[in-house]
Amino acid sequence: MGGTSEREYNEKLDEIRKKLSKRTKDVRDDTIKIEKVKVDALAKIEDMRRSADKEANKIEENIVKSKDLAPESKQRLNLELTNVRNEIEDNYAKLRRQIAESIVPVIA
Fold first, then answer.
1. Residue ranges per domain, the chain?
2. Alpha-carbon gap, residue 83 to 98, rounded angstroms
3. Which residues of 70-94 are buried (b: 16+ CB within 10 A; e: fewer)?
4. How many CB atoms lie within 10 A of CB 62?
């Protein structure tokens, strides 16, 4: 006869379960790593935004306090400061969106 016994089949099935369990654990570990990277990236983005806003506010205060600048110069600098603030917000939004989209698969 020499056919495969029930015990041998059960051992093979147990091997499949072990491999499945290991792969499941590996995927969970990878998911945890991905989430950690995502949190770190979001923290960097927040820090970037906060730092840039702080610097822009300081420049704005100095422009307002400056007695050497002509009103036209102050107006141009304020306009440029507004542009910089818009760039800060745009970059912030783009980076947050990029992080969110990197986790969720895009279906074409």
1. 6-103
2. 22
3. eeeeeeebeeeeeebeeebeeebee
4. 11
Is 81 in a helix, a strand, or coil? helix
**Measured between alpha carbons, how far is 38 from 88 in angstroms, rounded to an integer?**
20
Structure tokens at 18: 């072990």
* Full pLDDT tens readout for the chain, 108 residues: 568 899 999 999 999 999 999 999 999 999 899 889 999 999 999 999 999 999 999 999 999 999 999 999 999 999 999 999 999 999 999 999 998 888 666 565
Q: Residue 9: helix, strand or coil by DSSP?
A: helix
CA dist 49 and 92 (Å) reads: 7
